[in-house]
Amino acid sequence: MCLAIPGKIVEIVDAENHIAKVDVGGVRRNVNVGMFDEGEVGVGDYVLIHVGFAMSKIDEAEAEETLRVLKEIGEYDPGVEEFKTTLV
Amino acid sequence: MKFVDEYRQGDIARKLADEIARLTTRPLKIMEVCGGHTHAIFKYGIEDLLPDNITMIHGPGCPVCVIPLGRVDDSISIALQPGVIFTTFGDMMRVPGSKTNLLDAKARGADVRMVYSPLDALKIAKQNPERQVVFLALGFETTAPSTAMTILQAAKDKVENFSVFCNHITIVPALKAMLDSPDLQLDGFVGPGHVSTVIGTRPYEFVPREYGKPVAVSGFEPLDVLQSIYMVVRQIVEGRAEVENQYGRCVTLEGNGRALEAIFEVFEPRDYFEWRGLGSIAHSGMKLKSKYAAFDAELKFRVPGLRIADPKACQCGEILKGVKKPWECKVFGTACTPETPIGSCMVSSEGACAAYYNFGRLSKIAGRSA
Ligand code: SF4
Questions:
Q1: Which 3 state secondary structure label does DSSP give A84?
Q2: Residue range A5-86, CATH number
Q3: Is the whole model's pTM more than 0.90, yes or no?
Q4: In 3D, which of B42, B256, B345, B91 has the Cα closest to residue A79?
Q5: Which residues of B touch A3 (CB under 8 A)?
């Protein structure tokens, strides 16, 4: 549960409740972006996602490298599986 | 240095490893605090890249691993109450209580559901207004803001059938306990990454100031960890002790203001919280402020709240303190495996025992225990 997965913001769904849609390896789900200041993240930005909340902004290269490492340590598939189940 | 080929930037890894070996002239014990780092260290055989006189001590930074038996029993007792939907992260399902675990409780008819996010638990509550939905919250400051923000959302949306069984813990009191432990003489720390994105690096400044030990806050990629070890070793050799930030791409001095605000709004420290294997640590746990009492499962339900001693066979405590290595536990890999864990260090993939079991560098084990 402690590992965070990188995703790309593709849509701001509900600005008032800080909900954005992210894409993680083709899977799209809503996450909460309430940990960022207003306007700090937007469509096209990469973020690290932990238990349904975007935690920090990262760049594309970092997102790719993190994905690669998660795949190598075998945490990517379980991570994405969990992510798929999210109801948010 | 046989595993260096697994690194994408093998040449940098090799240089760092060479440099660490050159600098290290006396035995050093360095603790990686965070379970994510433990995982990376085993998977990438980072210990095999290090000179023999550096010992990595795998710290208490896996929140699943430090949940005491009594709190698991309390969770099960809440889950078994009529009308309750009990939600938790997947990692918690197999964590043993004194008699059974949540997975067994589910098999016995309790409505236990795995969720990815506390927000999912809140959603389940909204969808099931006639039921009581409880979320088992656990984790360090990485996860606490998510729980806090979910409670704030529940308050805003006036959801009355949602509550949280709070087991959040904080990293600084745990570090203090490690530093004050007489059987543990550490030379430095590889500091947690995700926790630090929330709290920043400033809270670690007491480590060099009061204890004279270096800290390097680290990212999760194998090179990050190796580089952080290098930073710690260099500080030791140069006679410095400070907090360095290897993970500057995500971590700042002050942390994430919004996340911290949410934590301080919703939680306050408990006088004491029990850690599996480590005992009771002052101010190390968080509970809901009375303002949010309506969302506190400990007030909403009667929980046994018993303190239960750790199983005798399990050496998680020694392992969390780095006094013993997983393979030195008598039941490691025999009676205790990830399928049938006796202690919680075997449950989560970030626990030292599970990491050793999954990626154990047998050559190293053989070499070191000989
Ligand atoms: S191997 Fe199992 S019983 Fe032994 S210390 Fe690890 S978790 Fe505990």
A1: helix
A2: 2.30.30.140
A3: no
A4: B91
A5: 36, 39, 220, 350
